[in-house]
Specification:
The protein folds into two domains: 210 residues, 3-Layer(aba) Sandwich (Rossmann fold); 72 residues, Tyrosyl-Transfer RNA Synthetase (Orthogonal Bundle), CATH 1.10.240.10. 56% of the residues lie in helices and 7% in strands. It is built from 14 helices and five strands. The longest helix is centred in the C-terminal third of the chain and has 30 residues. The chain binds adenosine-5'-diphosphate (ADP) and tryptophan.
């Protein structure tokens, strides 16, 4: 098995990113080869401030390493450190039908939100296919919203292999059913772009404030409450043990237990869960040379794999 996944530096990472993508990726690093990268070319489609892009790129590196990405086990790199990825994307675009990209939900959603339809936004899944295919990955740990992009990658790879001979391994998305979509404080999918997220490494006061704002129904303190439809419980399940979850559920069903109390319990559980990672992050912040050396080393290792694939693709289409 060879895993590959990327995450965009388009804002501070949140617990949806953590449970949907980072944690599964970190677990996979123990089960086979793993390649994880910071998708800063992709982020250019939404971030127009160069300083912000640089800052968030470092932030993703710190966050991922602090949360357990082990550079001894996984190759960790910045996408733009191997610009040859763009050549592979170009070669893949030759076998990418317009219709395939036009059908992508993510593209349609962004356009619907008023983001101008430019070429990068449209071609985004082709660059993503190049990322995935460049290292011949078999497994792509991502949240559910990225499933379609992995399917597009498969279609492109199959089409290329049929037309030019087998160059690419056909990958599969690895999606955790139990945490397919982490809800935000408003109950919709947690996302930076909906401003309903809870940052992994937000300041204590701000994080608590955010959690206290989670939307619930308007049941009174003494009322019996339904744990199955409550956003607070849904988030608590990510952090708490089975016994602690059962206890909260019983409180809900018994009545006399307010949402404010449940939110405080959720905050404590989350704060405790990330405590060791916060410590690790502080260490890394004081050792930025080490972080940079990890990324440089990762780029060298990823480039070795990419070069092999790119050479085969160039040969297959007749560029050499
Ligand atoms: P955002 O929606 O905040 O911009 P991204 O699109 O950058 O997040 O997602 C990065 C990774 O995190 C992807 O693999 C995505 O599927 C996953 N992810 C993002 N939000 C969630 C969520 N609410 N639940 C589960 N996974 C998520
Ligand atoms: N599109 C992904 C996201 O927004 C980021 C990404 C870029 C990616 N290239 C990838 C994810 C390759 C998995 C594999 O989350």
């Amino acid at each position: 098995m060879r895993a590959l996944s990327g995450i965009q530096p388009s804002g501070k990472l949140h617990i949806g990113n953590y449970f949907g993508m980072m944690l599964p990726a970190i677990e996979l690093q123990n089960q086979g080869e793993a390649f994880y990268f910071i998708a800063n070319y992709h982020a250019l489609t939404s971030v127009s401030d160069p300083n912000k892009l640089r800052e968030d790129t470092l932030d993703v590196a710190l966050t991922f390493l602090a949360c357990g990405l082990d550079p001894e086990k996984a190759v960790f790199y910045r996408q733009s450190d191997i610009p040859e990825i763009n050549e592979l994307a170009w070669i893949l675009s030759i076998v990418t039908p317009m219709g395939l990209l036009e059908r992508c939900h993510s593209y349609k959603d962004k356009i619907a939100k008023g983001i101008p339809a430019n070429h990068a936004l449209f071609a985004y899944p082709v660059l993503m296919a190049a990322d995935i295919l460049s290292v011949q990955s078999t497994t792509v740990p991502v949240g559910k919203d990225q499933k379609q992009h992995v399917e597009v990658t498969r279609d492109i790879a199959i089409k290329f292999n049929n037309q030019f001979g087998k160059v690419f391994t056909i990958p599969e998305a690895a999606i955790r059913s139990e945490v397919a979509i982490v809800p935000g404080i408003d109950g919709q999918k947690m996302s930076k772009s909906y401003d309903n997220h809870i940052e992994i490494f937000g300041a204590k006061k701000a994080t608590k404030k955010r959690i206290m704002k989670i939307v619930t129904d308007c049941a009174e303190l003494e009322d019996v409450k339904n744990p199955d439809t409550c956003n607070v419980v849904a988030l608590y399940k990510l952090f708490a043990s089975d016994t602690d979850i059962a206890t909260m559920e019983e409180h809900y069903k018994a009545g006399g237990y307010g949402y404010g109390t449940a939110k405080k319990v959720l905050f404590e559980a989350m704060w405790e869960y990330f405590a060791p990672f916060r410590e690790k992050r502080e260490e890394l912040e004081n050792n930025l040379d080490y972080v940079e050396s990890v990324l440089q080393d990762g780029a060298t290792r990823a480039r070795t794999e990419l070069t092999k694939t790119l050479d085969a693709a160039r040969k297959a289409v007749g560029l050499c």
